[in-house]
From TrEMBL:
Underlying gene: polA
Pfam families: 5_3_exonuc, 5_3_exonuc_N, DNA_pol_A, DNA_pol_A_exo1
UniProt entry tagged with the keyword DNA repair: yes
Residue ranges occupied by any DNA-directed DNA polymerase family A palm domain in the UniProt entry: 729-935
Protein name: DNA polymerase I
Gene3D superfamilies reported in the protein's UniProt record: 3.30.70.370, 5' to 3' exonuclease, C-terminal subdomain (1.10.150.20), 5'-nuclease (3.40.50.1010), Ribonuclease H-like superfamily/Ribonuclease H (3.30.420.10), Taq DNA Polymerase, Chain T, domain 4 (1.20.1060.10)
Catalytic reaction annotation: DNA(n) + a 2'-deoxyribonucleoside 5'-triphosphate = DNA(n+1) + diphosphate
Organism of derivation: Azospirillum doebereinerae
Domain 5'-3' exonuclease: 22-279
Record-annotated 3'-5' exonuclease domain positions: 362-560
Positions with biased composition (Low complexity): 315-334
Length: 971
């Protein structure tokens, strides 16, 4: 779940706050777990010699943070040795299904052990045993010696060790794991975990267990019969026949499974327990190792610690990083020079600055006098970080619960507005409940804040400020000017990683914010923010504003060095109020029309289902891939089929489309059934539930920082994927209607991506065709197939159209052959002829792929970077996919940039013309407006002009308009 700041729930506060044994205890770090978490958490990055080091960087950061937090005297890092161990001797298939580690990770294993030694930590591994066995052994030895043990891991297999004197700690969630947490996961105490695992098995490790018994059932059985042997010896007394038979039949398999999951706590210890102590690291050796990997930000942190401890004088750091006092909140080190791949060890995750370096001073504001102090601070500093808390994630209808402000790093406040008032507002008075806390009336807070929030001399900073903008707008405040730390990060690093506040705090501040679930709970017990006690609300909300300001302080200067100022200032930042207003407007839906469509689809689904069953000769659950696969391949013998890891046949759309092309009617009817079922569940049913009672409209959320190309994406509900070319999709669009007295106006760019191909590849023949206003597909066919325009047939034009659009998406000969119903050889001949005729395109495509290989990204005409992480992948299929993306991304991204330029200009143009038209939706190349009927034609002409003038290219941009009572009519 994501809160209004764009923060994804991940973790709790810093580890110092978590309960843990004292410093005299032993910490056993699951090194193998750290490695894989680090590898998958960070984007690929390399050091100057091309060696991948993303896992090394993540591992080093995690170690550094852990050591700083726990300050323990005894720590050891434990690793797996070789893949095979003693378990394979009695069960050869143990972990047999696990794929080999990724090729990019293999060279990092040795470097990670070298990193451990550079930190002067004991490094433990033993051939023939797993890391978990060594952890169990040392935990036993330490416990027997009267020392407390903390296992730093979240691995469920280690939970069997939890007990008196032995606890676990999940460093990613900053969560202590004790008996209660083990019981929550397995339903039994830690000493019974192995029995539950023996029954449930583990598909990842290929532990067989007993078929049909999951963790919940296993826990019930073990609780009832005491342990595994007690259960198996009484298996004949189990009431359920199927379960009884399984337990009797697979009893020996369960016993083997128990031996597989039971950790060996008596493995030969590779080093004496007394050796597992933290030694003072050789800082020069450590810094030398980190510099060799290119980890400049980690070097800066180590040198900062050395400065604080007096080991080196201020300013003597040699890494080039700024000292901690060089800028508010700490300046980030300069980026390293790109490696040949474009990925460097100084990738996004490496730019860190410890949040704990600055004292946190958070204040609860409950009267106007205190609020005026903060307003005066904002006028003095000229900057103000702002965040809002609400009772829901729909800004068009959410109640504003509170506002948080920050004026400098570490200095923030929270202004509660509606805490404790929810029940009273709903008419559910509880006379025994305490009165609501002291709060300033919302109207008075808005009146006090309006001046500073609208003051052009004070910059307001938010994270995902689009959400907050709507809340303030609904309360009569037009916030301006603004900066958005989420969009700054997006302009800098696009699709390289996510841009939620939690993720950015981890990446750049080495800090884990308070998770939303810690404050409000989860599931059925989750409360809305207005029910949160003020002390907890203060810690959470003020931290959001504080982190927003720190991220802005760190990231904003990088726009200049990265040459991303234009992208941010002209494309992304100005779009915030435009999209906020669009979301707030919403779009009107005809509920009755949707209900009729749902009923119609339900009837058709039954008809198609009967048809499928008739072809199959039996009834079965079409929605079950397992049953469908068995019917198609075991019963009907339509082919050999292909089974996945679960043993079930694959029945994805590609498999069904192949069968349909071979003439098997049942496959086509199943595809029909799936399409109808998706339309019903995703649109006709779901959209009815999304109509807001207060507005009678659907208010989709547009994500401004979610795609790699700069396109907006629509969620909750997604209104960008409604099918356009099917009759069912067109019926759904007819349910989007104009309010009485209004019309819907749809304006979309005509063939914008083909025009951009001609422009970016400088294809003279295509540019001439566009300038002359020719039918581009017919013109292409004439050029490629040598057929005069006056002799053009629809079939030849269709082939040219398929190639035109296929080229944009990197279509292969095989893909084109399926689309046109021809052989792959013929399709390859068409593509070859196309590229020979338009040789400029082939040159541009090769140059674009080469640029991507060199830099790790491609660039739109307006300077936006679209990252291509797989462009150097050793796997040919993944590399080819990335190459196709590299060709498409600058085209799609430039189209998205042009659309943004148009959207930013349209509201001002409409206002200047006195038009009452409102922008409702943006769907790829289309904008949808609601406009008074009398103004429709005038608005259409005005918006067309703005869209066509959004960019000056060597080919004309053409926008086409339609007007109607519903979306389908207008489109």
């Amino acid at each position: 779940m994501t809160d209004a700041t764009g923060t994804t729930e991940t973790a709790a506060p810093d580890t110092a706050a978590a309960s843990a044994p004292d410093r005299s205890g032993l910490y056993l770090v699951d090194g193998s777990g750290f490695i894989f978490r680090a590898f998958h958490a960070l984007p690929m990055m390399t050091r100057p010699d091309g060696t991948p080091v993303n896992a090394v960087m993540g591992f080093s950061n995690m170690l550094l943070k852990l050591l700083a937090d726990i300050k323990a005297e005894a720590v050891a890092v434990v690793f797996d040795s070789k893949r095979l161990n003693f378990r394979n001797e009695f069960y050869p298939d143990y972990k047999a299904h696990r794929p080999p580690p990724p090729e990019e990770l293999v060279p990092q294993f040795a470097l990670i052990r070298e990193a451990t030694e550079a930190f002067c930590l004991p490094c433990l591994e033993l051939e023939g045993y797993e890391a978990d066995d060594l952890i169990a052994t040392y935990a036993r030895l330490a416990r027997d010696a009267g020392r407390a043990v903390t296992i730093v891991s979240s691995d469920k297999d280690l939970m069997q060790l939890v007990g008196p004197g032995i606890g676990m700690f999940d460093p990613m969630k900053n969560k202590a794991i004790g008996p209660d947490e083990v019981f929550e996961k397995f339903g039994v105490a830690p000493d019974k975990v192995v029995d539950v695992q023996a029954l449930a098995g583990d598909s990842v490790d290929n532990v067989p267990g007993v078929p049909g018994i999951g963790v919940k059932t296993a826990a019930q059985l073990i609780t009832e019969y005491g342990d595994l042997e007690g259960l198996l010896s009484n298996a004949d007394k189990i009431k359920q026949p199927a379960r009884r038979q399984k337990l009797i039949e697979f009893a020996e398999q369960a016993r083997i499974s128990r031996r597989l999951v039971l950790l060996d706590a008596f493995a030969p210890p590779p080093r004496p327990l007394e050796d597992l102590r933290v030694r003072e690291p050789d800082h020069q050796k450590l810094i030398g190792f980190l510099k060799a990997q290119g980890f400049r930000s980690i070097v800066a942190r180590v040198e900062m610690e050395m400065q604080r401890d007096g080991r080196i004088a201020d300013g003597s750091a040699s890494s080039g990083a700024a000292s901690s006092g060089s800028a508010p909140g700490g300046a980030a080190p300069s980026p390293a020079a790109p490696s040949p791949t474009g990925d460097t060890a100084e990738a996004p995750a490496a730019r860190t600055h410890a949040l704990s370096d600055v004292e946190k001073r958070y204040e609860l504001v409950q009267d106007l006098a205190a609020l005026r102090v903060w307003i005066d601070r904002a006028r003095t500093t000229g900057i103000l970080a702002v965040d809002t808390e609400t009772d829901s994630l729909t800004p068009a209808t959410a109640t504003l619960v509170g506002v948080s402000l920050a004026t400098e790093p570490g200095l923030a406040c929270y202004i509660p507005l509606a805490h404790g008032a929810g029940a009273a507002a709903a008419g559910q008075l509880d006379f025994d409940a305490p009165p609501p806390p002291a709060q300033i009336p919302v109207a008075e807070v808005m009146a006090a804040l309006k001046g500073v929030l609208e003051d052009p001399a004070i910059l307001k900073i938010g994270h995902n400020f689009k959400f907050d903008h709507q809340l303030f707008a609904r309360n009569g405040v037009a916030v301006s000017p603004i900066d958005d730390s989420m969009l700054i990060s997006y302009a800098l690093e696009g699709g390289a990683h996510g841009h939620g506040m939690d993720e950015l705090a981890e990446l750049h501040l080495a800090y884990t914010p308070i998770p939303f679930k810690e404050i409000c709970g989860t599931g059925k017990s989750q409360i809305t923010f207005d029910k949160v006690p003020l002390d907890k609300a203060l810690a959470y909300a003020a931290e959001d504003a504080d982190i927003t300001l720190r991220l802005w302080t760190l990231l904003k200067p990088r726009l200049v060095e990265a040459r991303m100022v234009t992208v941010y200032e002209t494309l992304d930042r100005p779009l915030v109020p435009v999209v906020a207003d669009m979301e707030r407007a919403g779009v009107r839906l005809d509920r009755e029309a949707l209900a009729r469509l749902s009923q119609d689809l339900a009837v058709r689904l039954v008809e198609v289902e009967k048809d499928v069953h008739r072809h199959a000769g039996q009834s079965f659950n079409i929605g079950s891939p397992k049953q469908l696969g068995e019917v198609l391949f075991d019963v009907m013998k339509l082919g050999t089929g292909k089974k996945g890891k679960t043993g079930a046949y694959s029945t994805d759309s590609g498999v069904l489309e192949d069968l349909a092309e071979q003439g098997h009617v049942i496959a086509q009817r199943v595809l029909d059934w799936r399409q109808l079922a998706k339309l019903k569940s995703t649109y006709t049913d779901a959209l009815q539930q999304k109509i807001e009672k207060d507005t009678g409209r659907v208010h989709t959320a547009f994500s401004l920082a979610a795609t790699n190309t700069g396109r907006l994406s629509s969620t909750d509900p997604n209104l960008q994927n409604i099918p356009v070319r099917t009759e069912e999709g067109r019926k759904i669009r007819r349910a989007f209607v104009a309010a009485p007295g209004n019309k819907l106006l749809s304006i979309d760019y005509s063939q914008i991506e083909l025009r951009l191909v001609a422009e970016m590849a400088d294809i003279k023949a295509l540019k001439d065709a566009f300038r002359d206003g020719l039918d581009i597909h017919a013109a292409t066919a004439a050029q490629v197939f040598g057929v005069p325009l006056d002799q053009m047939t629809s079939d030849i034009r269709r082939k040219a159209k398929a190639i035109n659009f296929g080229i944009i998406y990197g279509i292969s000969g095989f893909g084109l052959s399926r689309q046109l119903g021809i052989t792959p050889g013929e399709a390859n001949t068409f593509i070859k002829a196309y590229l020979e005729r338009f040789h400029e395109l082939k040159v541009w495509m090769e140059a674009t792929k080469a640029f991507a290989r060199q830099h790790g990204y491609v660039v739109t005409l307006f300077g936006r970077r679209c990252y291509m992480p797989g462009i150097q992948d050793k796997n040919a299929a993944r590399r080819s996919f990335a190459e196709r993306q590299a060709i498409n991304a600058p085209i799609q991204g430039t189209a998205a940039d042009i659309m943004k330029r148009a959207m930013i200009r349209v509201p001002g143009a409409l206002a200047a013309a006195g038009s009452n038209a409102r922008m409702l939706l943006q769907v790829h190349d289309e904008l949808l407006f609601e406009v008074p009927e009398a103004e429709a034609e005038q608005a259409a002409a005005l918006v067309r002009g703005v869209m066509e003038g959004a960019a000056q290219l060597g080919v004309p941009l053409v926008a086409e308009a339609g007007i109607g009572d519903n979306w389908e009519e207008a489109h």
